[in-house]
Design goal:
Elements (H helix, E strand, L loop, with lengths): L6 H8 L5 H32 L6 H16 L4 E6 L2 E6 L9 H8 L18
Antiparallel strand pairs: 1-2
Length: 126
């Protein structure tokens, strides 16, 4: 699978240098995120990529970057709140690489439109 977003793109997005171990992790996360975006985009996205010489639309590159950044910076998807002495931490259902509903919607825009087909009924029994 061609790489549409590079480790250098992720480092720039995160505004930090990546160690060798971080780079290996980011490479894995990129592969997973790219596969998810391509799956959500379906055949319409695949056709666009093929027609454009292998280029992924920039907005979908952004989706990949955001998904990788989420998984890299918060791999267990922990959330916490603090109000004075009270603190609360929870783990969400999603961990690792995932696409938000808005990101999925962006990917699905590339799917071909569904159309209806007229079907004629024939009398098969004589």
């Amino acid at each position: 699978m061609p790489s549409y977003v590079t480790e250098a793109n992720v480092a720039g997005y995160l505004q930090r240098d990546l160690s060798a171990q971080d780079t290996a992790t980011v490479t894995l996360l990129l592969n997973v995120a790219e596969a998810m975006v391509l799956a959500e985009g379906g055949t319409g996205l695949a056709a666009h990529i093929s027609a454009s010489g292998g280029l992924l639309p920039r907005q979908l590159q952004g989706v990949i970057l955001a998904a990788v950044a989420r998984a890299f910076t918060n791999p267990e998807n922990m959330r916490s709140e603090q109000l004075g002495d009270y603190g609360y931490t929870s783990m969400n259902d999603r961990a690792g690489v995932y696409l938000t509903e808005d990101e999925k919607r962006l990917c699905r825009r590339w799917r071909p439109a569904v159309s209806s087909v007229r079907v004629r009924a024939y009398d098969v029994l004589r």
